[in-house]
Amino acid sequence: xxxxxxxxxxxxxxxxxxxxxxxxxxxxxxxxxxxxxxxxxxxxxxxxxxxxxxxxxxxxxxxxxxxxxxxxxxxxxxxxxxxxxxxxxxxxxxxxxxxxxxxxxxxxxxxxxxxxxxxxxxxxxxxxxxxxxxxxxxxxxxxxxxxxxxxxxxxxxxxxxxxxxxxxxxxxxxxxxxxxxxxxxxxxxxxxxxxxxxxxxxxxxxxxxxxxxxxxxxxxxxxxxxxxxxxxxxxxxxxxxxxxxxxxxxxxxxxxxxxxxxxxxxxxxxxxxxxxxxxxxxxxxxxxxxxxxxxxxxxxxxxxxxxxxxxxxxxxxxxxxxxxxxxxxxxxxxxxxxxxxxxxxxxxxxxxxxxxxxxxxxxxxxxxxxxxxxxxxxxxxxxxxxxxxxxxxxxxxxxxxxxxxxxxxxxxxxxxxxxxxxxxxxxxxxxxxxxxxxxxxxxxxxxxxxxxxxxxxxxxxxxxxxxxxxxxxxxxxxxxxxxxxxxxxxxxxxxxxxxxxxxxxxxxxxxxxxxxxxxxxxxxxxxxxxxxxxxxxxxxxxxxxxxxxxxxxxxxxxxxxxxxxxxxxxxxxxxxxxxxxxxxxxxxxxxxxxxxxxxxxxxxxxxxxxxxxxxxxxxxxxxxxxxxxxxxxxxxxxxxxxxxxxxxxxxxxxxxxxxxxxxxxxxxxxxxxxxxxxxxxxxxxxxxxxxxxxxxxxxxxxxxxxxxxxxxxxxxxxxxxxxxxxxxxxxxxxxxxxxxxxxxxxxxxxxxxxxxxxxxxxxxxxxxxxxxxxxxxxxxxxxxxxxxxxxxxxxxxxxxxxxxxxxxxxxxxxxxxxxxxxxxxxxxxxxxxxxxxxxxxxxxxxxxxxxxxxxxxxxxxxxxxxxxxxxxxxxxxxxxxxxxxxxxxxxxx
Length: 893
What we know:
The chain is α/β, with parallel strands linked by helices. The chain has four domains: 6-287, Succinyl-CoA synthetase domains (Rossmann fold), CATH 3.40.50.261; 297-454, Succinyl-CoA synthetase domains (Rossmann fold, 3-Layer(aba) Sandwich), CATH 3.40.50.261; 461-503 and 582-710, ATP-grasp fold, B domain (D-amino Acid Aminotransferase, Chain A, domain 1), CATH 3.30.470.20; 715-880, 3-Layer(aba) Sandwich (Aminopeptidase), CATH 3.40.630. Helices cover 34% and strands 22% of the residues. It is built from 27 helices and 37 strands. The strands form six sheets. An eight-stranded mixed beta sheet has the order 30-31-32-33-34-35-37-36, sandwiched between helices. Strand 36 (864-865) and strand 37 form a beta hairpin. Helix 10 runs parallel beside helix 15, helix 12 (355-367) runs parallel beside helix 13 and helix 16 (468-480) runs antiparallel to helix 17 (488-497). The longest helix has 21 residues, at 434-454. The protein is globular.
């Protein structure tokens, strides 16, 4: 389930409170009073066997007595009554029910509600929630002590207490909301559903989240990635969990904490993560006024030189930078500012500045093309009041066109409150301290950067060639033997099969075998113990390096076996891995690893390697699938990244080799869902490349099922097809680096076909459209490209699903010199096979009535006109498929 029936939250005409009451102090009374006081213009029903005597409330004794179905229902009755109530509401046609009541936190109680809702397709909000506030509908269906004003923010919270705190803060600062929803236990409607809903809500400019846990991570990630492309999503995550002390088979497992993974997932989804509630409020204030994208170059105007400098110093920490004023701007300011002014950014208008001086500076910096936004700081003086200066700044912004964001910092709570009404009326956020003001601008800049990252131009991906069959054979062999750990030799063979260079090593089970192995390897040697019970060999003294001779290797192994047998009597020693030492004076030791998070599935780690990995904790996390840019961002997110550059007489490490290794590990965990944990430590990197000196892989013995929350391109849908006209073509899912090839296709499409494809007079397909068609979420969208034998793209078929996967819209384009050869027919049939396999309910196509060829083809392919959709110039055709296989989004296979 996703946004189905949630349109009832837009403008409900009626609401029923099951358990509504006029008894003083009861929860049902409080909810009813909030609805009445909030000014809801629709019909309010109170359902209670006892009479309810409140003005503007229609009392009925039972749900059966309701004169018509309510659009929404709110339940405040005892837990035991709720399943029957949901069943009765569903039977009369109510589709959205919010359960405020306290319900035990057990699976049986939750399942009873879902079982009652399912036959009627009822959506449930809650239970154990505060309720919901829909200010644009004038509805406060909650027991919150304050109402919410109408505005442009959606606030979705898993905590009712956080809702009340947000409402208190917003009321004092005149911040309004498009919707406030307390989700409670999320038995049905969850964060992903409501992110989807508010992403498409025209009243909403930004979405704020308070997150305790994500219950359907694949759906959540898909919804958040889609929403972040069009509006900012800001989140605060409760529950920081430090993972440094936990025992784990791999270093990566020990390093990975829940909060770390949430942060990585939010970053990948384009969500801006804040640390404390005050930061969420700061983000709310600025994002309710300004909608990205904006740049990160800030001009600062202040009547206090020190305040301006402190604000400038805070910018890098907020992810922003100080704008460089143009010479023309400085020259324009010279006549109106005192002789000693700074003649640079920050613009110091000096302590005796009146409103006119602030106005001149504000107009000038906002007119500068090198400035993306301005921060005006007023330090109270006896020369002019804060209100006077506020009026001057507001007028100056209007004179400058009002397009660029302006942030006010009126230092001190009393100073800020005196000017707040003026700034609120002008739509300008005001803060009373520098840190909050600068940080708020940082959120605006980060939201813009997150959106740009989701729309970035991809580079060619550096992925080494792989031999997945070889790796699979090793993993299947171990699983069949009931083993959850691969030996070091097996682990290196698996990563080697994916193109990661590995140091050559061989397993020797006894002294004679050590001699034979050493005869095949050049000295000096590394001798490493092999024991399932001792995965961290270095920690127990199970590694000897720079062993000079065969005899030394035999002696070291014997001594190691005796000591470990005494210290760890329960550990079985399988043998010793013998390797040739790798000599690299400029080598840096790195870690690449994989751990399985219970919420977000496989997580890839990169950072400093070696023995001290868990002490230094220099690590960055990412979710597969990776690409070059994502891998590069992981590398740059660590301190060790600086050591990969050249310094003194040490040449720069081969960054591309590290990127290839990260991409290879990403491909490995996608192909091999059995891998639960993986360590490559150390990965030795120098100017010549990267080589894995040791590897460790732990397996899961449960069902080998993908737990990826971001679906990779389903390359299994690649096919070589032949059309009815004899054209052979290679069809595969689109990839991000197909942007140029797709652009070339549209350059070779007739103007009429381009108009039919986009249903506009479009002459050129811009990059924004190309990005949307190539950097897709494969859960929501499928885009097949058809290639001629010479590699030219000759056709495109884009299938865009609604979040419920009940219907998908199809659009096809064919290169003009390949028309009338059966390309469209063959490609559409391939799309239909895909849609049937995915459980999509129906495929629809919006066609121009002039496009007779497409209409004829689609009718032949089983599409029929949808009654009532003929708009004169366009018509909707539909091909109904089997019903969706599931209503819940599952992790991608």
